[in-house]
Amino acid sequence: MDVILSASLGLLFLVVGTAAVFLMYYLWGFPFDKATRTSAAPPSLMRLHRQLGWFYIVIYIVLMFEMVPRMWNYQVEWPARTVAHMCLGMGVGFILMIKVVILRFFRHLEEWMPALGTSLLACTIMLAGLSMPHAFREMALASEMGDVYGDENRERVKKLLQAAKLPEEAPIDELSSVDSLQAGRQVLLKKCVACHDLKTILDRPRSPLDWVGTVDRMVIKPSFNEPISEFEGWQVTAYLIAISRDLQRSLKERRAQDEQREQAEAVLAAPPPAAAPTVATEPVAPPTIDPAVARKTYESVCSQCHELSEVEKAPPTSEAEVIEVIRRMIEDNEMKATPEQITQIEWHMIKVFVHRG
């Protein structure tokens, strides 16, 4: 069962549970004969409530058949969200068991049903809130960002794969095709999630070289499920490179929101004093830096995670801003570059954007 089907079942689980609980609230408004243990509610609605309850249990069992084996296959330490998800799932099962036992053997405790039903709905809502958003986020990346399979993006993926140090036998042209990218997405949704959740994968963008190294490590790890073949590893690598540009946009939006909040707090705390204007001077290129090599290094390294036009739209205006941009690329995007490459990129950006050279 892939992640999208699992998330769809989770959404149905939430809808059925909500409908059953609110129908229960309505049915408990009818007179109830404690002597005969019968309600004056319409029999058709009573049957509908019972059917919704059993449907809810069936969905829960199907989801547990999918989720419980995954607990044994996780190859990373469970994050707090996964632990909470697991505890809520077991809590739902415990409450369901209590409800069924009361209905079958302890009818004198039926007055507890509204409280148990409400608790069940609360657990279901929290369970859905913890699990579904990350699955539907991947769907958004694959559908709303419609250019993932577009010609321009596939050409970009092909160029990045050529520089990503894949084995020589890797068919670059085939891996950048629409069919191969779609197959890579299926590997991501069916096999990669056997060992960790989608949030771990989609949390931040990575460079193509990082994706190759990450997927290679995952391929050679032992797995209780069907292992990922070498070719499937290449396919999922290509797909992750294809969507990394959209992950970069998402990260940039979150970073902009954080910076805006920090700036507002700084203004409220202590407005910064006005700074005297400074006159920029033309940087002197060290003898070891060739402007042509620096430009090529900037284009090859920085284009791995985003388009160069994004920098040109809002270029840094001071040397300090250039250093801050490079620092963010290293910390947030995990940019891989040697000290020499960083020096060349810094020199090129200062020359082109700050001094307009």
Short description:
The protein has 357 residues and is mainly alpha-helical.
Q: How far do the termini sit from each other? A: 56 Å
Strand order of the largest sheet: 1-2
The radius of gyration computed from the alpha-carbon positions, rounded to a whole number of angstroms, is: 28 Å
Structural class: mainly alpha
Unreliable residue stretches: 267-276
Tally the helices: what do you get? Answer: 14
- Helical amount: 55-70%
Could you state the order of secondary-structure elements as H and E? HEEHHHHHHHHHHHHH
Please explain how this structure is put together:
- By secondary structure, the protein is mainly alpha-helical.
- It contains 14 helices and two strands.
- It has helices at residues 3-27, 43-73, 80-105, 113-143, 151-162, 172-175, 178-190, 198-202, 208-220, 230-269, 291-302, 308-313, 319-331, 339-354, and strands at 32-33, 38-39.
- Strands 1-2 form a two-stranded antiparallel ribbon.
- A hairpin with a 4-residue loop joins strand 1 and strand 2 (38-39).
- Residues 267-276 have low confidence and may be disordered.
- Keywords: Heme, Iron, Membrane, Metal-binding, Transmembrane, Transmembrane helix.
- Residues 254-264 have a biased composition (Basic and acidic residues).
